[in-house]
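In keeping with the milestone schedule agreed at the kick-off meeting, the structural modelling team has produced records for the first pair of proteins. Each record is given below as a sequence line and a structure-token line. The laboratory manager (R.T.) confirmed that both were archived under the project's standard naming scheme.
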Amino acid sequence: MTEITYILLLSLLAGAAMPTGALLARLDLVHPYFLGASWRHFIIAFGGGALISAVALVLVPEGASKLSPLLAALCFAAGGVCFYLLDAFLSRLNSSVGQLVAMLSDFVPEAIALGAAFAAGGSAGLLLALLMVLQNLPEGFNAFEELSSNSQLSPNKIVLAFSGLALVGPASAATGYYLLSQYDELMGALMLFASAGILYLVFQDIAPESKLVHQSMPAVGAVTGFLLGLVGNMMIAGG
């Protein structure tokens, strides 16, 4: 198997976690007692923990290593501002696709970074693929719930659309591998820009949605999501 084939398969696997999460949410919609409130919020918070682990273990360290402190800070700040403006725009539109946009907003730059990381060598690409799988499953779950409750789309159409969106992963990874891997500063800027956006989305959308009164499961979910990212990082680095 060639390296690019391996990269495309990894990015497709990461993207396939989105419709898998949607299918889990659809099952929960049909059988609401299948998961219950505690486990449903655990899944939401798990995605937040996995997203933060991607930021802390891969995107920020890799991105910051390619830029000066001032430029790194500017790129990170720009990401936060842009995601704030995007969120405000969607709120004014009263759109039901906020969680879907959030899912793609981190999936696309991470898939690009995945391809570039493999082109540059090292273990960051494999770790990033693992973290993308961990975060895309609960994000697919969240996005399905939002779309199914606030739009006219049927559940089957939503799952089908998510399956099509999974193909964005290989296309983005190939772009990073062939076109952007030679531009270290551009890749660093993209990683930091995406990092700020991910942090904004975690605290704006995921953390509030995961909260349950007098329940600790959401907090346990967030810790578990980050823990799996940390273990994956240590195993890959050790190998």
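The second protein of the pair:
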Amino acid sequence: MQIGAHVRDAEDPLAAAGEVGAEVIQLFLSDPQGWKKPPPHPRAAELSASEVAVVVHAPYTANVASTNNRIRIPSRKIVQQHLAGAAEVGAFGLVVHGGHVTAGDDPATGVDNWRKFVERQAGEHGFDVPVLIENTAGGDNAMVRRFDALARLWDAVGEFGVGFCLDTCHAFAGGEELAGIVERARAITGRIDLIHLNNSRDPFDSARDRHANIDSGTIPPDELAAVVAEAGAPVVVETPADGQARDIAYLREHAPA
């Protein structure tokens, strides 16, 4: 399995990968809190040709599930733009948060909005790279906080070839036990394409998305290593930068392929 990190150095991500010993890197192509189309990456050719695997994370602002047209329609557009940008850097996927509907809205509407998006995209020209839907930590109206909600979403979108990104901090903070989580996720989705391997600063079922390094959070490190070993999927740590090299080394030692 490949183990690596989310890199903050957008100008030279391969150099950043070398500093922490990453075999796979995740990066943003534009402001993660913005709505702008990503510009061409200055090192796209190098990234595409590199032996380091690349995955791109869509902006946090994207919420394909939203019932608000002013959010949902721009969200579809920005995801499409990032799919194209991800293909240019040779990424194996685009991570997109599952999103949510607002209080008082029927979550089934959010599920239907996801289906409409992926069905239309698949019908028009397909996906430049696979969309990897990520579970999230909080919100009673989230599409993929808990796995019963994930199952409802997958029943609607699974046939269109979307992938799944499992975030351990999000799962733990969202109220999902990590013991057996790989088997439960695969029973729903049939696949795990990427692991976001993060410890949590907050307790179980807190609904708080605050990442910690493997050795400094509320999840026992051996539980995190067990998830990695069982999943056998590429791993990205999204942990505080000063501990990323240590996190990667720990996983290589305690969760060998």
